[in-house]
């Protein structure tokens, strides 16, 4: 029989967070081995329960939420999102500018698909949350990576952004707070990015899904709030701030000079219609979540479980010879560096396999986040303190063997 091949559209599409190393971990689990998973930001499985009112709301609404809704979503949760944009000082957003989706992921793919033609370029951070690079490629565009500077707390290198703009550049992706680095960008940096977008007439794609997962009393500035005259598409959702990844509830907001983007918005509406609507119970949960007590505060405040685990993981990693990590200001991840003099890693996927095989700890290699050198990895600090300390102890032991090879 003729072999059935995947589409050539997928030739450059890569999503290593759920890639071959995870497959290997699954096999090991099937064989009865216990793996410590530091690979994925899935809060609920680590005992971070969603707020009770969201769960109750899902249960209560289920019987009456079996129908399709408007393609952009139900009015009331979209109105709740409008209020949220007002709280975040994003001007001029109406219910019509809000799209609800099955998680932010669906909307990210939609926003790029509606925009890009073959050869169009989108500036994407390195490291990035790899859905962005994958979605640009899948949409026929060309991801062009700008570097985030580890020495400057992983903030974007503005000169690198400027250098990489060409006549084909259509937009800049800003992931703030950042996955995988845990960076939180100061307003000055955001203002500069807005200025670049303004000068070159680029769209800003703002992924702000961790905007309430902030440590040390930090505050978050939405880039769209600084950019009334620049078209911004801002993404957010319940997955992280409300520990509800599985409910697949997200939103996207278009702000700025929408009149100039009528055709693009028509494209967005078309794609939203083609997938009919987001799951209805998830839509209703958005309204409940945004209005209720913001219990994430209890987890990120000093002494809160997430804050404690962040501190522990940072301290333990920084004690390992040749390992350095910038303490995250936000989100659920850190992106430690392995000094290449001590750890001359040629292939960091192989490194992740070996760590898994020898110590049963699952991480994701840095190149999986489009980081150009094989000298970083991403770690999720979600397991409880004992498991986290155990896992980092195993990483330290593995690295000790690695140095002595
Ligand atoms: N954006 C970032 C930066 C993420 O880290 C994730 C998930 O890890 C997503 C988007 C996807 O979110 P959702 O669950 O809403 O699809």
From TrEMBL:
Residues 34-394 form the Aminotransferase class I/classII large domain. InterPro entries: Ala_Aminotransferase (IPR051926), Aminotransferase_I/II_large (IPR004839), PyrdxlP-dep_Trfase (IPR015424), PyrdxlP-dep_Trfase_major (IPR015421), PyrdxlP-dep_Trfase_small (IPR015422). Its cofactor is pyridoxal 5'-phosphate. SUPFAM superfamilies: PLP-dependent transferases (SSF53383). Pfam families: Aminotran_1_2. Pathway: Amino-acid biosynthesis; L-alanine biosynthesis. GO terms for molecular function: L-alanine:2-oxoglutarate aminotransferase activity; pyridoxal phosphate binding. Keywords: Aminotransferase, Pyridoxal phosphate, Transferase. Its EC number is 2.6.1.2. It catalyses: L-alanine + 2-oxoglutarate = pyruvate + L-glutamate. The keyword Transferase applies. CDD domains: AAT_like. Homodimer. Belongs to the class-I pyridoxal-phosphate-dependent aminotransferase family. Involved in the biosynthesis of alanine. Catalyzes the transamination of pyruvate by glutamate, leading to the formation of L-alanine and 2-oxoglutarate. Is also able to catalyze the reverse reaction. This is Glutamate-pyruvate aminotransferase AlaA. The lineage of its organism: Bacteria, Pseudomonadati, Pseudomonadota, Betaproteobacteria, Burkholderiales.
